[in-house]
Amino acid sequence: MRKLCYGKQGFEKAVKALYERPAFPPEAEDAAKKMIDAIRQNGDAAVAEFAEKFDHVKLSPEEFQMPLDKARKIASKLHKADKLAIRRALEQIQQFAKLTCPQDWMKTVRNGVKVGEKFSPMERVGVYIPGGTAPLVSTVLHTAGIASAAGVREIVAITPPGNTHPAVLYAMLRAGVTEIWRLGGVYGVAALALGTQSIRKVEKICGPGNAYVTAAKKLLYGEVGIDLVAGPSEILIIADKSANPEFVAADLLSQAEHGSGLEQAVLVSTDRALINKVEAAVLRQRDTLSRQETIDRVLENGVFLIEAPNEEIAAQIANNYAPEHLEIQTENPERVAKMINAAGAIFLGQWTPESCGDFCAGPSHVLPTAGSAKKFNGLETSSFFRRTSLVKYSPAALKRDAEIIARFGAMEMLDAHGRAGTIRVKKR
């Protein structure tokens, strides 16, 4: 863990490095490009080759897809209490999704002129469910569950061949997944984006992944829609003397256990005594957790304890960092939240741990990282819709605007554009 104090020598250099963290290293993009090119050229053959190379399983194209009946058989083994937790979380996530569904509208804005928007659900989307070191059941609900609530008809899940945990498959079936493909990492994402002899391409790919998956999504943007470019998970907590140091420590450690070792956990506090208490609590709680090797890598390189003179400076640091997850554990968290303009998700008060957002609160946990909250929103219901603008003019309204159309046509040397407006007026 590193301690920093705002305004002290070395602070600006240290915090600048913290702000400028990359979503993925350059070598990840180079490797992803080679795999994408291979799949573009060789389709199923390249997919099978990469499945054997990276996931150590030999698959023929006929074996890429997992039959839903097989998924149901495996999912049936899940404990009833786990099934109930999945159903309750899905219900709450889809409740929020439906509340935030974009609505068609049409309005008269000037005499004879109506404008509006029309929203149509996408027809076929892909959701990437990582395998890695943990079965990310919640990611299924926070991607496929939201797509289903949006009205997407074909929801295609891809996950590494070995990721057959009953909870993951049960969540897929409950969330509305219509196809399950045993494909992982870059090669799975590329196969969905480009299409192969056996895999129909999708319109958009959503879901988190490691550095290589993130690089692949960036490279495939344009071939397919993507949700966002996101790197390792991170949290920033703003806390004052009213915060419970045990709560703060638990929340910092919740990000440190994710698995890559590149995660970051940042505390910005106006109270030096709290920082010292949190440091001690982190070390004490670390000894009680199961993923200590992963946590230790993050404790060494990715945990920062920053002392700030006041809430305004704390909020400024948070905005510059633009965290994936921002917790505000202060006497008046709403006041601090008003100062925040860049964060994937904000969790208000000491009774709102980030993990409730990860699992069951409602909004998607697929959020921008590595400072990209300044440029991207998290995954939302509208991510699964196409937006189309609507415009309708009456004859009188067109006559009123015909001169504007004509002048712009002339200025831009596009006389056919101008005539398309004036020809209608002259004929009346």
Keywords:
428 residues; alpha/beta; six-stranded parallel beta sheet; six-stranded mixed beta sheet; 17 helices; 15 strands
Can you characterise this structure?
The protein has 428 residues and is of the alpha/beta class. Helices cover 46% and strands 18% of the residues. The strands form three sheets. Strands 1-12-11-10-13-14 form a six-stranded parallel β-sheet, sandwiched between helices. The chain has a six-stranded mixed β-sheet with strand order 2-7-6-5-8-9, sandwiched between helices. It has a three-stranded antiparallel β-sheet with strand order 3-4-15. The longest helix has 20 residues, at 80-99. The chain is globular, with a radius of gyration of 25 Å. The model has no long low-confidence stretch (mean pLDDT 93).
Summary, kept brief:
This protein has 428 residues and is α/β, with parallel strands linked by helices. Helix content is 46%, strand content 18%.
User: Main sheet: which strands, in order across?
Assistant: 1-12-11-10-13-14
Give me the number of helical elements: 17
Low-confidence stretches: none
Gross morphology is globular
Would you tell me the structural class of the helices and strands?
Answer: alpha/beta
Helix amount:
40-55%
Major beta sheet summary: 6 strands, parallel
* Distance from first to last alpha carbon: 77 Å
Beta-strand residue fraction: 15-25%
**Mind telling me the C-alpha Rg?**
25 Å
Number of strands: 15
Overall mean pLDDT score? 93
